[in-house]
Design goal:
The structure is a single chain. The protein contains three helices and ten strands; from the N terminus they run βββββαβαββββα. The protein is α+β, with helices and mostly antiparallel strands. It has two domains: 81 residues, no CATH class; 99 residues, SH3 type barrels (Roll), CATH 2.30.30. It has a five-stranded antiparallel beta sheet with strand order 1-2-3-4-5, with helices on one face. It has a five-stranded antiparallel beta sheet with strand order 9-8-7-6-10. The C terminus is likely disordered.
Length: 206
C-alpha cells in the first residue's frame, strides 16, 4: 500500500500542525535547504473556496528558534480560546443528544435551531457557541430532498455557514437553551421576520 504523500508548503514538508483558535499553526522543514531549513506559519481556510491561505510565515535555520516560535503561537491561541470562553460564559462540554428534541431530523429544519455534531468540528470548537446553528435554506433542510446542503447562521456570532444535513445532531430543545442562546435566538428571529415582511406601497419602487 502506497504511503500518503507528505503535505508540502513550497519546498517545506509539514511535520507538525494543530488547529486552534480559528486557524492552523504549522511547523515544517526542508533539511536540504541551508538558508531556511525550518518554516513556521499560520493557515486558515476562511474563504468561499476553502483554499489554504498562509500568513505570518517565518523561515530560519535555527531549530530551537523555530520550535520556540511554534510553541509560543500555540500558547497564545490557547489563552485566546480560554478568554473567549470566559467572556462568553460558556463551558467546555459539547452539546449532545440531551440538548436535542427526540425524534431526530425527520422534518423540515428550515427556520429551526439545530445542533451540529461535535465530532466533526475542530476540538477547540466543540462547544455550544459553535454548535448552535440556525438553518434557513438549502435542499438539505428537507429530509426527503436529494441535495444535502444546509445554509444558515451560527447562533452566537451570526456568521453565515454551510453544513451538510448529515452534520446535524438534531433539532435543538429550546427549553434547554442557556440564557445567551435564548436572547440570540429572539434577536435572530426578529431579524428574519423584518427581512420577510412585505414592503409598504410607499416603499416599493415605481
Amino acid at each position: 500500500m502506497e504511503k500518503d504523500k507528505p503535505r508540502m508548503i513550497e519546498h517545506w514538508e509539514v511535520k507538525h500542525s494543530i488547529f486552534i483558535g480559528g486557524h492552523e499553526i504549522l511547523f515544517a522543514e526542508d533539511e536540504r535547504n541551508t538558508v531556511d531549513s525550518y518554516f513556521v506559519g499560520d493557515c486558515s481556510y476562511d474563504n468561499p473556496f476553502g483554499v489554504a491561505e498562509y500568513s505570518n510565515c517565518i523561515g530560519t535555520t535555527d531549530y530551537l528558534e523555530a520550535v520556540s516560535e511554534y510553541t509560543q503561537r500555540i500558547q497564545t491561541q490557547i489563552q485566546q480560546v480560554r478568554q473567549e470562553r470566559a467572556d462568553r460564559g460558556i463551558g467546555d462540554e459539547p452539546l449532545s443528544t440531551e440538548h436535542c428534541l427526540p425524534g431526530g431530523l425527520g422534518e423540515n429544519i428550515a427556520g429551526k435551531l439545530v445542533v451540529i455534531k461535535p465530532g466533526i468540528m475542530h476540538r477547540d470548537r466543540r462547544t455550544a457557541d459553535y454548535q448552535y446553528f440556525f438553518a434557513d435554506g438549502g435542499n438539505g433542510c428537507r429530509a426527503e430532498a436529494i441535495g444535502s446542503a444546509v445554509f444558515g447562521q451560527n447562533l452566537y456570532t451570526g456568521k453565515r455557514a454551510r453544513w451538510e444535513r448529515a452534520d446535524m445532531l438534531g433539532i435543538a430543545d429550546l427549553a434547554k437553551l442557556p440564557e445567551w442562546a435564548k436572547d440570540r435566538l429572539k434577536s435572530l428571529q426578529a431579524e428574519k421576520q423584518t427581512d420577510n415582511h412585505p414592503k409598504k406601497k410607499t416603499d416599493i419602487e415605481r
